[in-house]
Amino acid sequence: MRWIFRIVITLIILVVVAVAGLFLVPTDKIARLAEDQFEKNTGRALSIAGEVSPQIFPRLGVKLEDVAISNAEWSGKGPMLEAASMEMGVGFSALLGGDIVVEAFDIQSPVIRLEKSKDGKANWDFVSELGGGEDGGGSADVSLPLAQITNGSVEFVDAQAGQSYVMTALDASLKLVDLKGAGRVDLSGLYKGQSVKVSGTINGVQQMLDGGVQGVDIAASAGGNSFSFKGSAGLDPMQAKGAVTGAVNNQTTLFALMDQAAPRIPEGLGQKVKVSGELTLTADNQIFLRGATVDLDQNRLTGAVDVALRDTPYVTAKLQADRLDFSAMSTDTTEGDGAANAGAGGWSDARIDVSGLSGVNGEFSLKANGIDLGSVQLAATDMKGALDRSRLVLDLTNVGVFEGVVAGQFVVNGRGGLSVGGDLRANSVAMQKVLNDFAGFDRLVGDASMSLKFLGVGGTMNEIMNGLSGSGRMDVGSGELLGLDIAGMIKNLDASYQGEGSKTVFDDITASFTIEGGVLSNSDLNFVADLLTATGNGVVDLGGQTIKYRLAPVALAGRLKDGIRVPVIIEGPWSNIRFRPDLKALLDTELEAQKEQLKAQAKAKEEELRAKAKVKEDELKAKAAAKLKDELGVERQEGQSVEDALKQGLENKAKDALRGLLGGN
Fold it and tell me: Tens of pLDDT along 403-423?
């Protein structure tokens, strides 16, 4: 029972002390002291229009009702602060000695108006208005162990920028034992409907207010996003240097704070962002981040990032990464490989959203050990890029893809729509992987060197592929054409030499092509294989995903005269390509050969008859010449016709007869 008795005595003593303390509190004196000291330290008038009453709990002091703090002389917005009540705590030990030492303020439901005039003056710049302390040689000596705001609101009007901001449900606390020493602030509230929290410590409050650089440690969060900084900073001009971390976990709430709609960013490019590194902020709004680690969703990059804060930020980055996953950039929603499935279901009609390209300008370089683009897998990658007003240009220095290397330029232009284009060169790429990923065709096995220029315009993959234009060339080294035995088909005139297990081994394939309206056209295919060569021409409808092509192979040309020629037709949708011998063309070729043979035979017969006729003619001419000689005594001279010789002979005979009649010689 003794311990219960002691507790009761202690409680009685506490009650007596509390009641005595209540009578000790000089309420009017404290109120007048508060008004005088506030105006002395800030240059602003503190008015107390309501009651002033003593209180014990939660701290010894007074409660002031209907409190207001005057605004700057140039402001026309009313009091800088209005509050229904303010609780002022005083030191108990000092009060017993007859002194009043203010240890705490607690302002209930205040309305705080902060302003910046068109000429840059701020209504919270108390010290500047004071011009220093009483001796004119320094700042006012302010000490406030604890100041609190509960359920307040703050309005900030920036006349220079023509903007205003409002925070409600404001709860804040300030601990400032010495204005020239360290101060700590903790703040929470609602801004544009989002929860905002800020806490931090400044090593020298007055020095920072006077334009100096001081040590700071600050953390902030808003709408599920966070930021922290530890280092040194200054306010006029704004500058900072130290360690920084940041996390964007909710793009929607972040952009809502800036009155903007959040861009649609594919997963892997920064739906959620984490950043850490050594930050430098200069007076001309330049941010330099060194030793940076940037997490874009599941992707981590390291390096250096510079940002120029403009209406549209300009970012310069030099980054490295291990493996990056950008597979969500693929717009195909079918199961499995998007491009391969396109062969069965057509190109995707899902809209491709590149609005995120408008949020920033800049240039970057990236080296990565691998990049997953969904339908395309990149190996070791070295690239540079530039983004200017929604137009992204990628310069590919050395990009490993499809077991080979690609270099060149790739462009995504989001200005007023969407277009994609490129000028690419590839070496030793595996054609089976290329065609399988882009066309669902896996029958051509071999490494190729390629060049390609292309341009596609449209808001979906379907529109882009159906409007594609360009040109290129392909050279495939030794390899195999699966599912088709061309030599067997030709030798046996049998279309069944195809399907699983059938193949044609080749030494080289070369071809050039053009693309117009989504249709690839080729007319100079050259195919070389053992016992087989072929030429080809036809079209590949990239938009409609069909092929119509004709091969003209020649088999066993080295063993048989003219070889065996049977054209092969390749046609159908990509999902069901068919191979068949072109028997009609074969018959047409055979008929044409027979026709030519008959022509040759007819010509030979004609020549034979002509020769026989010539012999007969010569025989007759010889007989006529002999007869002329025997009967007329005329010997036909070389080059003289039979007729002329006959005429000469008759003339000679006539002359001889005439001379006989006349008796002449």
Answer: 889 999 999 999 988 999 999
